[in-house]
Amino acid sequence: MNERLINQLKALPRHGDEVWQGGLLRMPAWVTGEGPEPYRPLIAIWMAIRADHVHAPDVLRPDEADPDAAVEALIDFALHSQYGGYRPGRVEVADAELAERLGFLGEVGVEVRVVDRLDAVKRVLDAMTAFAADEGPPIPGPLDPHGVTVPRMRHFAEAAAAFFRAAPWQHMTDVDVVEIEKPKPPPGMRCAVVLGAGRSMYGLSFYRSMNDYVRFRRAADRAGRGHPDVWQVSFNTASEVPPSDVDVWEEHDLPLASPRAHPMAMWFGKDGDVKRPTGPRLAFLEGMLRAFAQTREAEIDSGRWQKEVETHDGPVAFTLAIPDLLEPPSFEEWIERGFEPDRRAAERMFADMDRYFRKHPVADADEMNQAAARLFAGRKIDDLVTQPETPLERAQELCFDAFGTYGRRRVQLARQAVEVSPDCADAYVILAEQAGTPEAELDHYVEGVAAGERALGPEAFEEHVGHFWGVSSTRPYMRARLGLAQCLEQLGRTEEAVDHYHEMLRLNPNDNQGVRYLLMPKLLQLGRDLEAARLLKGWQEQSANWAYARALLAFRLSERPTASRRELREAFRTNPYVPECLLEEQPPPMPPHYSPGSPEEAILCAEELRPAFEQTEGSLDWLAKEHRQWQEETQARRKTQRRKQRGQKRKGGGKGKGKRR
After folding, report:
1. What are the E-state strand segments in 237-389?
2. Do 184 and 84 sit in the same domain of this protein?
3. 57 and 195 part of one domain
4. Same domain, yes or no, for 166 and 66?
5. Is residue 104 part of a domain?
């Protein structure tokens, strides 16, 4: 540091009791939208603790980071009276390299000290971030609660990494409620479920009781209204967790199973409040994560198992149980919990009828209807007239049982079905639906298609082509083939998926499974326009998907702008919300239900057709321009109609006055 600057600092008054904290720090917020990856900006900031003054002149991108920025900001703070205008007694930093750069301050009577935490600066940064985001008070940091230390957090991080690598969601779903029988859990954590089978959110959720879990599921179906408090350990990318978590993991080199597996322990209140676990609760979470990481599939299937694990607070013996495996609920109990009935279970009656009429042939349709009305009408679907005899029939009955239950019990029944008959396609369908990885799902669907082909035999594919779904014995095969096609599509093997969709429509042109809705967007995406045109022509529908697909196809194929404009205007009338959804940079979340012409239908339509629009040069600009013009014309027509209506009312009023006179 040059002598002139040293003399300037010496000339300043010295406030010996003042402490400044600061440095070049990462802000507790993520910046998105400026590139493929979000980033944390850096800020050169100093805080005078006693005077409660802050100086933060520079915010930098990570690639603009300059260690001297913090030094320059401190000198500005000291020399300019509008910021500080004095020398503090002590400067505190968390970076030893910065402390070395500030060594010149010793010549002017300022002590430089390296500390573990810059609490005053952290409060300022948190407040700045909360104000900018308008999200209320900041989320507490993972080390903030009482009793949480770095060693305790390291044990938790190790347990979380082991849990994520073990991937217990391969064997359990969020339907399998685990009761923690031993040790006595902290309040609100009597029951737990493993998250991750749906491949969207991974971790553990905790509830006070089974009743609270049921309430939570029902509240989720009602968009979260009235859900109970819940503790949760979730795994996220760095940009999805509070920056304070990322800082703790990086500063203390805590382990991660994956860059996308930052563990976060949090309590979520029904009023929007959040809090972090204290030391003892964090140790319990550590133990639970380790217990699940060490649990094997056979132990889960037993319904109750024990695990002794080492935690930061010492060894802990866990006894875990799945009550729904020990005493499987009835179908009625599942429905009371808010589960939707599986329509496939109703096919049991069709299988029963098929067996009966094979043994008791009828002369004509009238005799068949009379027998069906006499024997099957009003009967419960599990109250059979006939009994399954062949291995395949017995295996299929186990699948019908599985369709009437949920969670791990469904997997157990499907595996029993495979043991009874490896030709049972529905058993593989169930295993695929419950698979924890895309690879396992694909394997099960491949096995299901092969099993269905063996069970039906080559004759069935010739005899029943054209009305395949109408023969109840073909349905397990068709379910397996649809699942295989969708799985291939999700894995990016779109051409193979399209081939399966085409073949399914050949076998069953009535398309009871809605294959056409899956096929059409993929044909457009692949540029197979003539096939798409034939499909659209073969199904004259008034849905948003069909209307916007016709418009896009006209834009691609027609040389006359009026033709494509006409199709697009018809699409606007079918559902006017689709353009906004297609043009949004961030697609809205997918809705659970929709009705024709609704915003929810528009979201689904945009999601399916977005790849095809994005791959068609100029189509999105065309869509935006035509939609603006259509909106302007619509508004103008409405204004004209309102003026006419007002004029008619005035005329009608004048005639009335004349009569009264």
Report:
1. 262-268, 274-275, 304-311, 314-321
2. no
3. no
4. no
5. yes
Q: What is the CATH number of the domain that holds 48?
A: 3.30.420
Same domain, 190 and 314: yes
Last residue of a domain, one of 326, 357, 375: 326
- Region at 16 (left for phi over 0; alpha for psi -120 to 50; beta for the rest): alpha
Prediction pTM value: 0.79
| Pair (204, 234) in one structural domain | yes
At 315-337, the pLDDT tens digits run 999 999 999 999 999 999 999 88
Same domain, 214 and 322: yes
Structure tokens at 129: 């971030």
What is the Cα–Cα distance from 31 to 14, expressed in whole angstroms?
39
Collapse the DSSP code of 596 into the 3-class scheme (helix H, G, I; strand E, B; otherwise coil) and give the result.
Answer: coil
Assess if residue 578 is contained within a domain. Answer: yes
pLDDT tens string 374-415: 888 888 888 899 999 999 999 999 999 999 999 999 999 999
In order of 327, 446, 564, 628, the CA distances from 569 in angstroms are 58, 43, 9, 11
Write down the pLDDT at residue 37.
72
For residue 308 the two structure tokens come to: 């002794």
Residue type, 227: H
Query: What one-character-per-residue DSSP string does 371-412 give?
Result: HHHHHTTT--TTS-SS---SHHHHHHHHHHHHHTS-THHHHH
Give the model's pLDDT for residue 658. 44
The CA R_g of the chain, rounded to the nearest whole Å, is: 33
| End-to-end Cα separation, the chain, in angstroms | 101
Could you tell me the residue range of the domain that residue 117 belongs to?
3-133
Positions of the chain with pLDDT lower than 50, given as ranges: 223-226, 656-661
Give yes or no: residues 213 and 316 share one domain: yes
Confirm if 42 and 60 have CB atoms less than 8 A apart.
yes
Q: What is the number of alpha carbons within 13 Å of residue 213 lying toward its C-beta?
A: 22
Shared domain check, 155 and 129:
no
CB 404 within 8 A of CB 331: yes
CA angle 107, 111, 113 (to 5 degrees): 135
Query: How far is the C-alpha of 52 from the C-alpha of 48, rounded, in Å?
Result: 5
Count of domains for the chain? 3
Q: Residue 313 gets which letter from DSSP?
A: T
